[in-house]
Design goal:
By secondary structure, the protein is of the alpha+beta class. The chain has two domains: 111 residues, Roll (Ubiquitin-like (UB roll)), CATH 3.10.20; 328 residues, Creatine Kinase, Chain A, domain 2 (2-Layer Sandwich). Helix 3 runs parallel beside helix 10, helix 7 crosses helix 10 and helix 8 packs across helix 12. It is globular, with a radius of gyration of 21 Å. The model has no long low-confidence stretch (mean pLDDT 96). Bound molecules: glutamic acid (GLU) and magnesium ion.
């Protein structure tokens, strides 16, 4: 068993109990980006840290609507059990700011004997972080989280919590204590917030989370969701993180910002390439671009992801990169004199809450590392919206739409040996099975019915 002994967790459990905590939720994201959890009594935290909590192996093949798809290696029968353990250190068990009684920790799934389990998504990201480390590279990542806020009543369809003007301060003031409470809770939970605003769509809000190492970024993405849901519920609202809550909504992008450094030097700035890219930074970006159709199959993988992917909506419909181009699937955010070299990063727009954040970050890092290894050429940045061009002009510029159907998406991902190798055989198979199950549900149904079924799953 590779888990820590329970000592630190015993002390942490006592401290949590003193704060009135009675239970600790150990949570993880499944292959649909849906959060799953087990709650242990606070007195049982130390034991759970050492021995874990038993859960079925079949979580690897749950689809978005909780159906179980018995179709991946070793997952074709009801038999099998793995252990869910807190993924981090005792201090990573977060005391609830204003959620009485329940603490939170990200979890990981290990085999029954405590050894790594092939289907554990966190392990997939750990492998890529280690591979980057072996190449002398440090990756930093941060999520921007867009969501729609609805009144929490029985209305169907749900009623948006506010109407425009978009970006307006007054719409936030109209939400009672929701916004100040959310900011306070995120602060108390150790989630650094860059900024918060009313976004472009109906009752849409956005929260940007500060950069960190990739594992922390994924852990924080999970915790931020819990924090938003809790604050929303306390104020009579319901948050939808779905990629597209309804056809009349704006898409909720969970844009993923990453940068890569060697010896503390950001490879995305200080060079003489386009937008200040160093040669290695250009190779990293070229790797992301080369594998983008497959990466997007992991980072924006669901049926609603495909409906969100509309040209002209800043959602990354076409596979190209641009400098500060918000229509680009890969938006290069360059360093500036004001913000310094560390600020330079690449924003992946084709990213949303239906992605498992550990797998998403792993796919991005794997693509970037592939770029550094193979050094594919980086085309010139595109500063316009290719969606306004003729198809012939796009074709001449080598710009193709990202996959727009589940079939195209599966072909792009499973036809890409680099990205499927990042996932590993088992996760790739389970991922394919749950995607196919969701696609079968959506097939032939009216789009709004499909979007409604996914609206509050995340
Ligand atoms: N809501 C857009 C999306 O679907 C993004 C808008 C923006 O650029 O922030 O990703
Ligand atoms: Mg936004």
């Amino acid at each position: 068993m590779t888990q820590p002994d329970g000592t630190g967790f015993e002390a942490r459990a006592r401290a949590l109990a003193d704060l009135g905590v009675t239970g600790v939720q150990i949570g993880w994201a499944d292959n649909n980006g849906v959060l799953r959890s087990r709650t242990v009594p606070v007195e049982g935290l130390a034991a759970a840290a050492v021995r874990g909590v038993g859960v079925t192996t079949l979580f690897a093949v749950f689809d978005t609507r909780d159906g179980i798809v018995f179709d991946a290696p070793g997952l074709r029968t009801p038999s099998g059990d793995v252990r869910l353990v807190p993924a981090g250190l005792p201090e990573d068990v977060v005391a609830p700011a204003t959620r009485p009684g329940l603490a939170w920790t990200p979890g990981r799934l290990v085999a029954a004997d405590g050894t790594p389990w092939h289907y554990d998504q966190r392990g997939v990201l750990e492998r890529q972080v280690a591979a980057a480390g072996e190449a002398g590279l440090t990756v930093r990542a941060g999520y921007e989280i867009e969501f729609a806020l609805y009144r929490d009543d029985d209305a169907d369809p749900p009623v948006p919590a506010f109407t425009g003007p978009v970006y307006g301060p007054n719409v936030l003031a109209g939400l009672g204590g929701f916004v100040p409470r959310l900011l306070a809770d995120l602060r108390d939970h150790g989630v650094p917030v860059g900024q918060f605003h009313a976004e472009y769509g109906p009752a849409q809000l956005e929260l940007s989370i500060g950069p960190s190492d990739p594992l922390t970024a994924a852990d924080r993405q999970l915790l931020a969701r819990q924090t938003v849901h809790t604050a929303a519920a306390a104020h009579g609202y319901r948050a939808s993180f779905a990629p597209l809550p309804s056809t009349g909504s704006a898409g909720n992008g969970w844009h993923l910002h990453t940068s890569v450094a060697r010896d503390g030097v950001n490879l995305l700035s200080g060079g003489d390439g386009p937008a200040g890219l160093r040669a290695d930074g250009a190779a990293w970006l070229a790797g992301l671009l080369r594998d983008l159709p497959a990466v997007a199959g992991v980072t924006a993988p669901s049926v609603p992801s495909l409906h969100r992917r509309r040209p002209g909506y800043f959602a990354g419909a076409y596979a190209f990169w641009g400098v500060e181009n918000r229509e680009a699937a890969l938006r290069m955010v360059p360093a500036t004199e004001l913000l310094g070299p560390a600020h330079a990063n690449v924003e992946l727009k084709a990213s949303d809450a239906s992605a498992n954040p550990y797998l998403a970050l792993a796919a991005v890092i794997g693509a970037g590392l592939g770029g550094l290894a193979d050094r594919p050429p980086l085309p010139d940045p595109v500063q316009e919206d290719p969606g306004t061009w003729t198809a012939a002009r796009r074709e001449a510029a080598g710009i193709a739409p990202l996959p727009s159907t589940p079939e195209e998406q599966a072909a792009a991902l499973h036809g890409n040996p680099r990205i499927t190798a990042v996932l590993g055989e088992e996760v790739a198979a389970a991922f394919r099975a749950v995607r196919a199950s969701d696609a079968a549900f959506a097939d032939g149904r009216p789009v709004d019915e499909v979007l409604a079924a996914f609206r509050f799953r995340y």
